[in-house]
Amino acid sequence: xxxxxxxxxxxxxxxxxxxxxxxxxxxxxxxxxxxxxxxxxxxxxxxxxxxxxxxxxxxxxxxxxxxxxxx
Length: 71
Prior knowledge:
This protein is mainly beta and 71 residues long.
């Protein structure tokens, strides 16, 4: 997802499921990026992410970001 953020467009996300086991979680969410990017190109992307998060002293952080996790 980080590469997509360089377009400087908002990311719309809808959480489907979050599975938590201790300090590790698997999050499944639908995402969409639509609009005109900073370089003037049109973007219309969407997918379903499968992300692994780890809870630490500063809260939850992404350990693995897989924006096309269900493909």
